[in-house]
Design brief:
Strand content of chain B: 5-15%
Distance between the termini of chain A: 36 Å
CATH topology of the largest domain in chain B: Rossmann fold
Strand content of chain A: under 5%
Largest sheet of chain A: none
CATH class of the largest domain in chain B: Alpha Beta
Helix content of chain B: 40-55%
Largest sheet of chain B: 9 strands, mixed
Number of strands of chain B: 11
CATH architecture of the largest domain in chain B: 3-Layer(aba) Sandwich
GO cellular component, one term (chain A): SCF ubiquitin ligase complex
Shape of chain A: elongated
Protein name (chain A): F-box domain-containing protein
Oligomer: heterodimer
Radius of gyration of chain B: 25 Å
Radius of gyration of chain A: 20 Å
Structural class of chain B: alpha/beta
Number of helices of chain B: 17
Protein name (chain B): DELLA protein DWARF8-LIKE
Structural class of chain A: mainly alpha
Shape of chain B: globular
CATH superfamily of the largest domain in chain B: Vaccinia Virus protein VP39
Pfam family, one (chain A): F-box-like
Number of strands of chain A: 0
Order of helices and strands of chain B: EHEHHHHHHEHEHEHEHEHHHEHEEEHH
Largest interface: A-B, 56 and 62 residues
Number of helices of chain A: 11
Organism (chain B): Miscanthus lutarioriparius
């Protein structure tokens, strides 16, 4: 999982960075796997440039890129990459604070941009792309709407919304999720 | 609706021109006819799919085509017959003709067997038939044990929340109105008439965390039914909301008020402090407080709704958000009420069907079944679901005769845009959000189903309602008050 909960915001992030750093040192020390002469440049030499490139991909390509190698997986797990992806897909941020550090803090507390994309933006964009009518495509998502849906999901993960402990247990505990509607198959009749 | 099998990859559209229905007086009749070959009929087909399917029709063997057409017509005819039988039964009930009503009901049961239970009209008719038989045949039952009812009610409510866009539309629109009304205020107090699982508030907490100028300090007073002994549902919800608020750095405190009925709540229970911006939120609650509708409004006795509106006006809210069903189910005449309810719930079931992709959601329908049963079976003081249309609410809340002291607040373009975006995420192209005189309505194919409106306390001459003025007056006391409220929150949370 990309972003961590409010309890331990630093530790998983640190673990990822250490892995990246280790990998980068390994690659540098190993003498450049792909490069033959001193003039050739390997994309794995600079993880930050790699992150810049990956942040311009769309969701599916980014997920596929994460399967290439450990370094790419580590870079693709950076929340900043997913943040760039999310902000690119939602409408133009009207208030200037929309893309600022405050948003980053709130999104991190709710679960991170990667989770936001996986649960809200990704399925919603797929759903909108499937809608045939031109009018539907004009309703692009706003960041505020997707954050609202995301916050409800975070709240439910905290243990809310089961409708009472004992009775829900009797019913064979199906974890409710109000974002399930985004993942249901679309009836394009 | 089942998709085609291996040999028939296209959809078989409904031809409305051939149906010959007078769709002004009858509810819409969707037909889903899965037969052996797996051909399904799409109900709300637009012209493009129709033409596309027409091109494929020549390739079909005529036998299967004729069979499917015949079966569709049979279904439609059975549906129409069923509706007529139900309405005749309701007419007999209103006339007091028990024998005639029983006869019609028996015919309706028989007709029900002919209609496919997967079609929209089949499912609605099952519930209405069951409600009618309960009204005719069973003795007045005592109310079910409250614990089971509350737990079941909460579960069904959550499933209804997930299944369709209605409650999400209600919550998001109300949140947008609240956000706009409390702009610039440092202290916000929200009074929720029905907390349930508190699903409306995470989105508002998140939006307040991100508002330009920083989050205010938020107080939430949640009203709900008393919990069975050993549990404190209100407190549990408050604790969860407090966790969420803490993670996004919004100062939050919660207070629960347990009351069986809204008119038992008095203003002193809400503990509104001076200088805070109050928002009152009511989602599908006000209609339960109405009384039977007498003809002469001037001479009407005080209904519970009047007490609650007085309470609301006395806290002088910056915004009072009201979301109600857009239906007229409070008529005294039984046949009128029954017919209205039949049309209304057919539309709701249709839209649920489409929103769930044709699968139907049993729990959401069970939630609606409770309402249907109450509307059909309840009489006099027993009936709780007394839906009224938006124009009646407007008169009641803000009209010249109303003593409520409230003025309308138009909902604005942001709310409309957000509602349209939200509704666009749900499958089924039939949902529409319309705006009418500052209120939003969510409808299905032009039939409005739910309406959202916002009100505020009417201006008085010596009432200053600028947040900044109050804030500066109270600046010295604010840190003390904040400390007290934080301590109160800790005390509340650490209770028991």
């Amino acid at each position: 999982m990309g972003g961590a909960g409010a309890g331990a915001p630093r530790r998983p992030g640190e673990a990822v960075e250490v892995t990246e750093l280790e990998l980068r040192i390994q690659l540098l020390g190993g003498g450049g796997v792909g490069g033959a002469g001193s003039g050739s440049y390997n994309i794995n030499d600079n993880a930050d440039i790699l992150a810049e490139i990956l942040s311009r991909l769309d969701g599916r390509s980014l997920a596929a890129a994460a399967c290439v190698c450990r370094l790419w997986a580590a870079v693709a797990r950076r929340d900043a990459v997913w943040e760039a992806l999310c902000l690119r897909h939602v409408g133009p941020p009207a208030p200037p604070a929309a893309a600022g550090p405050a948003t980053r803090a709130v999104v991190a507390a709710l679960g991170g941009y990667r989770r936001l994309y996986r649960l809200c933006l990704g399925p919603a964009l797929d759903r909108l792309a499937q809608a045939q009518a031109q009018a539907a495509r004009a309703h692009h998502l706003s960041l505020s709407l997707s954050l609202s849906l995301f916050s409800i999901d975070c709240y439910e993960r905290l243990g809310g919304g089961g409708g009472g402990g004992p009775s829900a247990g009797k019913r064979g505990r199906q974890q409710p999720s109000s974002l399930l509607f985004l993942c249901k198959p679309v009836d394009v009749s | 609706m089942a998709m085609g099998g291996a040999s028939f990859p296209f959809q078989w559209p409904e031809e409305p021109a051939d149906a010959g229905l007078d769709d002004v007086t009858l509810p819409p009749l969707p037909t889903a006819v899965p037969d052996a070959a797996g051909i399904a009929a799409a109900y709300y087909a637009d012209a493009a799919t129709y033409m596309h399917a027409m091109q494929h029709m020549e390739a079909l063997p005529d036998f299967a085509a004729a069979l499917a057409a015949m079966r569709r017509e049979e279904e439609e005819a059975a549906g129409i017959r069923l509706v007529h039988l139900l309405m005749s039964c309701a007419g007999a009930v209103e006339a007091g003709d028990h024998a005639g009503a029983s006869a019609h009901l028996a015919d309706a049961h028989a007709a029900l067997a002919a209609v496919s239970p997967t079609s929209g009209i089949g499912r609605v008719a099952v519930h209405f038939t069951a409600a009618l038989s309960r009204r005719l045949f069973s003795p007045p039952t005592p109310s079910p044990p409250p614990a089971a009812e509350v737990a079941d009610g909460a579960f069904l409510y959550h499933r209804f929340y997930e299944a369709g866009p209605y409650l999400k539309f209600a919550h998001f629109t109300a949140n947008q109105a609240i956000l706009e009304a409390v702009q610039g205020c440092r202290h916000v107090h929200i009074i929720d008439f029905s907390l349930m699982q508190g699903l409306q508030w995470p989105a508002l907490i998140q939006a307040l965390a991100l508002r330009p100028g920083g989050p205010p300090s938020l107080r939430l007073t949640g009203i709900g039914p008393p919990s069975p002994p050993g549990r404190d549902d209100l407190r549990d919800v408050g604790v969860r909301l407090a966790d969420l608020a803490r993670s996004v750095r919004v100062h939050f405190s919660f207070r629960g008020v347990a009351a069986n009925r809204l008119d038992e709540v008095r203003p002193w229970m809400l503990q509104v402090s001076q200088g805070e911006a109050v928002a009152v939120n009511s989602v599908l609650q006000l209609h339960r407080l109405l009384a039977d509708d007498p003809s002469a409004d001037d001479a009407r006795p005080r209904a519970p709704i009047d007490a609650v509106l007085d309470c609301v006006a006395s806290v002088r809210p910056r915004v009072f958000t009201v979301v109600e069903q857009e239906a007229d189910h409070n008529k005294p005449g039984f046949l009128d009420r029954f017919t209205e309810a039949l049309f209304y719930y057919s539309a709701v079931f249709d839209s649920l069907d489409a929103a769930s992709g044709g699968a139907g959601d049993a729990a959401a329908e069970a939630y609606l079944e409770l309402e249907i049963c109450d509307i059909v079976c309840g009489e006099g003081a027993d009936r709780r679901e007394r839906h009224e249309p938006l124009r009646r609410w407007r008169d009641r809340l803000g009209g010249p005769r109303a003593g409520a002291g409230l003025a309308a607040v138009p909902l604005g373009a942001n709310a409309l845009r957000q509602a349209r975006m939200l509704v666009g995420l749900f499958s089924g192209e039939g949902h529409c959000v319309e705006e009418a005189e500052g209120c939003l309505t969510l409808g299905w194919h032009g039939r409005p189903l739910f309406s959202a409106s916002a009100w505020r306390a009417a201006e008085e001459n010596n009432q200053s309602d600028s947040c900044n003025a109050d804030g500066s007056r109270r600046a010295a006391a604010a840190p003390v008050r904040r400390a007290i409220s934080a301590a109160a929150a800790r005390a509340w949370v650490s209770q028991s």
